[in-house]
Amino acid sequence: MPTDRRIVLFDLFGVIARHQHPGAQGKMAARCHTPTDAFTTAYWDYRPPYDAGRQSAPEYWTAVLRQLSRPADADTIEELRLTDIDSWSRVDERMVAYVQSLRDVAEVALLSNIPADHADAFLAAQPWLHQLDHVAFSGKIKAAKPDPAAFQHCVTPCGQPRPTSSSSTTARRTSAPRRPSA
What we know:
Layout lengths: L5 E5 L13 H8 L4 H10 L1 H5 L5 H11 L6 H14 L5 H10 L3 E7 L3 H10 L8 E4 H4 L6 H8 L13 H6 L8
Parallel strand pairs: 1-2, 2-3
């Protein structure tokens, strides 16, 4: 159903939600008895398929732990998974209020690269997400930015025709991975 209303598409992390909690990588590295820099490399190197829903949490964490030459037992995997989810759980309440205020004048959508299990936790903890016009988490839609399919997943439900290009400033800006710059 086409709409004459404007569409505002937000990313989640670094916009509405805060970046990963400082010290989280160090905490997870300590749990693995490995240096933080080695943990961080493995964490991000194996992240894209997990974010895109092509890998489960146990598959992701097993790959990370194997890269670190650490045992991949179920208890360690679950502890890392829960610590990781918690490390990405903080939101900027001012931005939440702003996003909600836009619903009176625009279709409000959200597109974020986030694993399915993280998305489930975020949806449970943040009821305001259910009030948006469209929410797309990469792990749920099986496509992560910058894949055009991820953007298409938001555009079509909001009633807009298929875009001919994704070269807008917004598309480029939101396509950056969550990995923090050094």
